Amino acid sequence: MEPRATGVATATDGSAGREQPHVRVAVIGYGYWGPQLVRNFDRLRDTTVTHIVDLAPARREAASEAFPHINVVADVELALDADIDAIVVATPIRTHYPLARKALERGKHVFVEKPLTASVAEAVKLVALAERMERTLMVGHTFLYNPAVEELRRIVADEAFGRVYHVDAIRVNLGLFQPDINVLWDLAPHDLSILNYILDAEPVSVSVQGEAFVRPNIHDVAHVMMRYPNGALAHVHVSWLHPSKVRRITVVGEKQMAVYDDVEATEKVRIFNRGVDVPDYTSTFGEFQLSYRYGDIVSPHIHWTEPLTIECQRFLDAIRTGSRPPSDGQNGLQIVRLLEAMDESLRMGGASVALEPEDQPAEAHV
Ligand SMILES: NC(=O)c1ccc[n+]([C@@H]2O[C@H](COP(=O)([O-])OP(=O)(O)OC[C@H]3O[C@@H](n4cnc5c(N)ncnc54)[C@H](O)[C@@H]3O)[C@@H](O)[C@H]2O)c1
Assuming Cys at both sites, which of 261, 273, 310, 366 could form a disulfide with 145, CB separation 3.0 to 4.6 Å? Predict the structure, then answer.
């Protein structure tokens, strides 16, 4: 793709004499996740974090202590008025839309933490606004930049894996309870974005059983069932009410099976050469026998880089060149659409909600 006019200043990188535009970024929200984003952007080449913005005095104090060279302010207007190119939004979900909209209207590139917005209507407006302003809109679906997920995607796409039968994803722990969103909006964006990415498709229907055990009306446990167009079935279990931390995705294919365990330190991905073969033809029921294959278990070497570093770099690349990261605004909209359908299913006691093709964005991009 041709580099586009970005409006960002050009600077020499100092090493090979190559020139690339210098990008100035403000990070909004310095709670649990914001510091991770500041740390990453702060150490990337030809990038300056000019401002950290947080409403809470205690968080501003923590930011000033950790990053004394960065301006720390309470008002986002101070950052938008300064000579910045982009904002990174790491605030609670209900604030994503107003902050992102304001920044896009001022001609800034925008990175928003997951999920993109609190509703489909908001996400549609943001995507359209970013298009109109010719600015990058990206959402923090961090796992799309995780080398282990990339490896899983490669394995599943390989002919040796065969057709995907079903996927089982589990993301549970004790807490962290969120004050204003249910467990689906908090945890499921990760699994939904990973599943769509590795299956290279979007579900056609979804149904959810869940419960709000601890606080009224805020579901803390949910079991999601999704059907994909090629017949694959997916189950996603998310919970804030579990004794231990589990983050695991199992993909069962016709010829192989693969397990991605994010908690595992070294062997994050394992391929099981296991399966069931059905004989081509048997003349009587008595002769019918399945044959089980128990082959090797292989754990491929994964060259590891922190996913957040890759994600931040992809945002900067998109600003500089106009390239589209896998978690662009459209991808953010797809996930918000799924989350809304899941809430609808919950309200209807677990009924299946069809995701009609016309409900899906025309330029689906995962
Ligand atoms: N990608 C990931 O793996 C990942 C992990 C954790 C959280 N997140 C996402 O990051 C976002 C923030 O989550 P968190 O856990 O850090 O929340 P948090 O509540 O710990 O922090 C949010 C911070 O934003 C500040 N804030 C709120 N409104 C503001 C405003 N209008 N202007 C400036 N500051 C404001 C609050 O004072 C607080 O310090 C959420 O969207 C969440 O889903 C992503």
Answer: 310
Give the global pTM: 0.93
If one residue of 33, 111, 193 were mutated to test the ligand 1 pocket, choosing by the most ligand atoms within 8 A of its CB, it would be 33
- The Å distance, Cα 58 to ligand 1 centre, comes to 14
User: Ligand 1 centroid vs 91 CA: distance in angstroms?
Assistant: 3
Residue 40 Cα, ligand 1 centroid: separation in angstroms? 16
CB 137 within 8 A of CB 308: no
**Is the fold of 10-142 the same as that of 144-308+335-359?**
no
Identify the residue whose C-alpha is closest to ligand 1 atom 3: 142
Ligand 1, atom 27, residue with closest C-alpha: 91
Q: Whose CA is nearest to atom 31 of ligand 1?
A: 95
Give the Å distances, CA to CA, from 259 to 112, 168, 169.
Answer: 29, 9, 10
CATH class for the region spanning 144-308+335-359: alpha beta
3-state secondary structure 253-293: ECCCEEEEECCCCCCCEEEEEEEEECCCCCCCHHHCCCEEE
Task: Determine if ligand 1 sits within 6 Å of the CB of residue 307.
Answer: no
Average pLDDT of adjacent 10-residue blocks, the chain of 366 residues:
48 51 97 98 97 98 98 97 97 98 98 98 98 98 98 97 98 93 98 98 98 95 97 98 98 97 96 88 69 93 96 98 96 98 97 78 39
Q: What pLDDT does residue 18 have?
A: 59
CA distances from 216 to 110, 118, 121, 162, 197 (A): 34, 20, 26, 44, 34
Pick the CATH number of 10-142 from 1.10.630.10, 2.40.40.10, 3.40.50.880, 3.40.50.720: 3.40.50.720
63 lines ligand 1 (CB under 6 A): no
pLDDT at position 291, please? 87
